[in-house]
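Q: Here's a chain of 167 amino acids. Please give me its 3D structure as tokens.
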Amino acid sequence: MLGKGNTASHIDLTIARVKTLLSGVGAVYLRDLDSVRVTAWLTTLRRGAESIDLPPGEAFTPKTVAAVFGVTVDAVRKWLARHQLKATGCDKARRIPRDVVERLTEQRAKGRAPQTINHYIRAVRSFTRWLVRNRRCFSDPLGTLSLVNVSQDIRRRRRDLTVEELQ
């Protein structure tokens, strides 16, 4: 990917997506990778997670939120930044208000957007095509995997930037 001129961040993101998909599918060997298993895993991503019962309290530590969702503390930090949600305090005194955690729960229950699913598909298909091209595999196990129609479910409406935003 470096030889093609891709940036380091794009390479890291693509590798992370492929690793996540392989882990989610449970593919250890190449024979474990097929379109049916990948499609089933991507479908579970699209459906979203089950609702989570939050522990009592008005605010939570990032560690508590991470434990509730089964993710890392760093993932919680990135979630808050991505959805522009606020926490109070710094370091060990940082607390995330209950309404913010409830909003994260709602976001998680929505599932992944079709465009996100397509990013996973493109990443893993580029990997399997590379395997075939370099003769590490005889045929592409995900050759029949197709992209999801993104016009059905648009999560983020795009708009023109204002003059102030452009400046």
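Q: Can you summarize the key feature?
A: The chain has a mean pLDDT of 88.
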